[in-house]
UniProtKB/TrEMBL annotation:
InterPro entries: GlcG_carb_metab_protein, PduO/GlcC-like, PduO/GlcC-like_sf
Lineage of producing organism: Bacteria, Pseudomonadati, Pseudomonadota, Betaproteobacteria, Burkholderiales
Pfam families: HbpS-like
Name recorded for this polypeptide: Uncharacterized protein GlcG (DUF336 family)
Domain of life: Bacteria
């Protein structure tokens, strides 16, 4: 049996806190989700003033990044290039703002952010991932 790495509650808290602090600094109102490798929700923050819809989108971005092991920007670019077949995949987000969490070469989850522009969502997600990677050092 191969042991798998997992995110613990402190890892999740670090991701959420860092992404949320970055958003506050930029005056963005975001929803931020962290999922495990199976796309299951581990932690979530919906900042004051964030759109209710952003909550669903953030989780879909986290799930998509975790399950695909790719940034969701990849799927947004495919869709823009005319690859509309991805629209048929249930629960998948085709919007930038989801990034996989890779530790030691293994994808252990995903971070999804929604509520600002897609590049801003990705920026906040990256801030969350950076805090986790720093914690792992």
């Amino acid at each position: 049996m191969n042991p798998s790495r997992t995110l613990d509650e402190h890892d999740v808290a670090a991701c959420l806190a860092s992404a949320s602090a970055h958003a506050r600094q930029q005056q963005w109102r975001l929803s931020i989700a962290v999922a495990d490798a199976g796309g299951h929700l581990l932690g979530f923050v919906r900042q004051d003033g964030a759109s209710p819809l952003s909550a669903q989108i953030a989780l879909a971005k986290a799930r998509t990044a975790a399950l695909s092991r790719r940034e969701t920007r990849f799927f947004e670019e495919l869709l823009a290039a005319g690859r509309s077949g991805f629209l048929s995949v249930s629960g998948m987000s085709l919007l930038e703002g989801g990034i996989p969490i890779v530790l030691g070469g293994e994808c252990v989850g995903g971070i999804g952010v929604s509520g600002a522009t897609s590049p801003q969502d990705a920026e906040a997600a990256t801030a969350g991932l950076a805090a986790l990677l720093e914690r792992q050092r």
